Amino acid sequence: MHQPSKPFQPGPPSSGSPPAAVAGGRADPWPEGSRELAEHLQRRLVISDRDWHALKAQRSRRAAEQLAGALVQLLVADDPAATKGGEARQRAIALTANALAWLKGELKDPGCPDHGR
């Protein structure tokens, strides 16, 4: 037997983010899986020893590597509800400033100590 569908009743406005997950008795302030995604992105963007000479002068690559690291700091160790920033937030700020300096051309490759530069 066919049942009539219920009329649509809108709920509260959505922020566009899924609800916070509860981990260890406290609400996780970040969307589910975001920490793992940020860590994966950071690992993918790190310039490895093998690629260092080929990529060390690419400003966008260096900046992206630093920005991904800053994102990981925020998602893993920062409390977004805290009004004063802790150590993780300070590390994220430093990494972001470093990335900005790369993008602006204020930083350059320091050279390889193995080659006497």
Q: How would you describe this structure to a colleague?
A:
- The chain is mostly helical and 117 residues long.
- 45% of the residues lie in helices and 3% in strands.
- It has a domain of 77 residues.
- It has a two-stranded antiparallel sheet.
- α1 packs antiparallel against α3 and α3 runs antiparallel to α4.
- The longest helix has 19 residues.
- The protein is globular and about 50 Å long.
- The N terminus is likely disordered.
Task: Briefly characterize the structure.
The chain has helices spanning 34-45, 52-55, 59-77, 87-104, and strands spanning 22-23, 26-27. With 117 residues, it is mainly alpha-helical.
Secondary structure elements and pairings:
Elements: E1 22-23, E2 26-27, H1 34-45, H2 52-55, H3 59-77, H4 87-104
Antiparallel strand pairs: 1-2
The main pleated sheet reads as: 2 strands, antiparallel
**Low-pLDDT windows of residues:** 1-23
Helix content: 40-55%
- Report the total helices: 4
